[in-house]
Each structure stands twice: as C-alpha cells, then as structure tokens.
Amino acid sequence: MWIQKELCLAARQRGFHLITDEIVAAVSAIQTVQIGLLHLFIQHTSAGLTLNENADPTVRQDFERVMNHLVVEDAPYYRHTFEGSDDLPAHLKSSLMGTSLILPISKGRLNLGTWQGIYLCEFRNHGGPRRLVATIQGE
After folding, report:
1. Please, which of 7, 91, 95, 110 could form a disulfide with 26 given CB 3.0 to 4.6 Å?
2. What domains does the chain contain, in order, with CATH numbers?
3. Paired residues of 18 in beta bridges
4. CA distance 91 to 108
5. Is the model's pTM score more than 0.85?
6. Alpha helices in the chain (DSSP H)
7. How far from chain centre, in Å, is Cα 69?
8. pLDDT tens digit string along 24-40?
C-alpha cells in the first residue's frame, strides 16, 4: 500500500522544534500499517528535518547555537543577500541538516528509539508556515 498526504505546519520562530506528535496526529494512516516506512519531505530550501533527542529541550537550543556558529550571518563573501541576512545561511543549514527523513513503522506506530523525536529545523527569522509531504509505504 502507498499513502501520501501533504500537511502544513504552523509558522514557528527560528530554532529547532519537536514535531513528532504533530506528525503522528496529522498522518493517522500510520496506525493502519503493520510494517512499513514513513518518508517525510519538507518542501522548503530554508528549513530542514532531523531526528534527535526528544526529552531535554536544551539539546534543541544547543543545536541552534552550533548551527549559528557553523554558518554565520553577514559573511562578507556571501553573494545571495537579497532576501535578508538569514536567507543564505538558511539555505546552507538546510543542506547540512537535510530535507527528508525515512522512519520505520511497526504495528501501527513509528518505531523510534526511546529518546528520539522529529525536529522541524526553522532557519529563517520569519519562515512562515512549512509544507511537508508524508509518504507511507507498507502493509
């Protein structure tokens, strides 16, 4: 079976946001799958997705600090600056973090580790709502 659904996440402030519960609620077909995969794809070049720590919010804060250290704003050699000082860094961060995840589904649930959660990585100061495509393959 194949199922595909597009969803829209509300705008969030810049940072790393835990969205696991929001994804599971929006993609209720997960509950019908005994064994399969959920592919998540974010349709933006200035945001990303990753899987990491779901319990301690300081991990997400540290992700933001590290990414801002690795990819600085206002570097004098940037040429793509028309949309603001956070735009090119957002594109670079999106490529570094990635725009998709493939997650296992087992017995109607995402089969994540005990401390794993899905992050929306918002790299723009005012990124707006974010569109995702969720595709399930399974039985």
Report:
1. 7
2. 2-138 (2.60.120.460)
3. 119
4. 35
5. yes
6. 20-26, 57-70, 87-97
7. 20
8. 999 999 999 999 999 99
